[in-house]
Amino acid sequence: MYKNILVTGGAGFIGSNFVNYWAQNHPQDKIIVLDALTYAGNRHNLANLENNPNFSFIHGDICDRTLVDNILEKENITTIAHFAAESHVDRSILTPSAFIQTNVIGTFTLLESFRHHWAKQNQPQEYRFLHVSTDEVYGSLDIDDPAFTENTPYAPNSPYSASKAGSDHLARAYYHTYNLPTIITNCSNNYGAYHFPEKLIPLMVINILLGKPLPVYGDGQNIRDWLYVKDHCSALDAVLHRGKTGETYNIGGNNEVKNIDLVKLICQIMDEIAPDLPVKPSSQLITFVKDRLGHDRRYAINSTKLKTELNWQPSINIETGLRETLQWYVNNPQWWQPLLSADYQNYYQQVYKK
Ligand code: NAD
Ligand code: TYD
Q1: What range does the domain containing 207 cover?
Q2: Are 166 and 290 members of one domain?
Q3: Which atom of ligand 2 has the smallest separation from the CA of 216?
Q4: For 194-228, what is each residue's pLDDT tens digit?
């Protein structure tokens, strides 16, 4: 059966990659994007789809219950893929309230609206509420701890991860209480095209292109597990088509890398692929700066469940995915240059002034 999918946050980094992926792989499905176009939302990410009759865009807030009710009814929504969130840890340290509003209240609003919509349609079995979340809800690992599984207790350490944990608990509770067909995914760090400049990889790439310092927090020994965003999209496809309601699936890239090693690799690739860099070798720009407050040491994901139950595994290793991503930033300055606005400079000053 064809789906009418409401994609919240579909103009952001992962959401827009997902919408582009879905339109290509499931062209018969109808896609409706609901996005508030915060600083992180960008309509240009969806430019390829503007003339697609199965795609539409609604500018609005997931906290607006009346708007969400109207969309679910009018568009006959069968599936929600919920990406909309405040997503950056450093911003959550500076201004946590937006995180509570969108991540907790916004998710609650969507769940409530979807619950009534689903009940009105006599609780169709094929309806889905896919709640896209993060591995950060599990907290921080020591170097020799086993990777997070779906049974790892929640221990969020930042306002961002705490707000995501709250929203995960709501999605879980709506399944247990109302039998609402929710599924939760907890994913590791994504990278790829359309990633907003504030995050580690695009920030380093853009600073290399501009000849600016590359700020590495603390001792640079923190570890993240990196997943190419297109692999995340194929995992969500598997979960939406074959996943069991009420379940959680961890999604990881099997690519644990120390921040400093990743930054050095980025420098090495940029030195090869980018013509006329202002500073070369670009590794000269690496600068250790004061650590992030409460900085989690290590994330690592065990995605055995996804592999054994849904037959999914990542297909792209970090070298290949990183090369493709870096080339995309080199080729598309018209995408990222306008994002370095006065507001962004102001944010940058606040985080990096130390
Ligand atoms: P992003 O910040 O790039 O995009 C978020 C999008 O949500 C933007 O388009 C923004 O305009 C929209 N939005 C924000 N508040 C809204 C509101 N109140 N109503 C409607 N739209 C709103 O985020 P991302 O990196 O694409 O992350 C998407 C989801 O995936 C998030 O839920 C995040 O927690 C999760 N996640 C991200 C990563 C990662 O590495 N980026 C990893 C795991 C999970
Ligand atoms: P980030 O991309 O913000 O993702 P997250 O905090 O959700 O993992 O950061 C990835 C890692 O890189 C994290 O350990 C913090 C570190 N980092 C820096 O060292 N310098 C920076 O300027 C940024 C943005 C991040």
Answers
A1: 200-221+257-296+317-346
A2: no
A3: 19
A4: 999 999 999 999 999 999 999 999 999 999 999 99
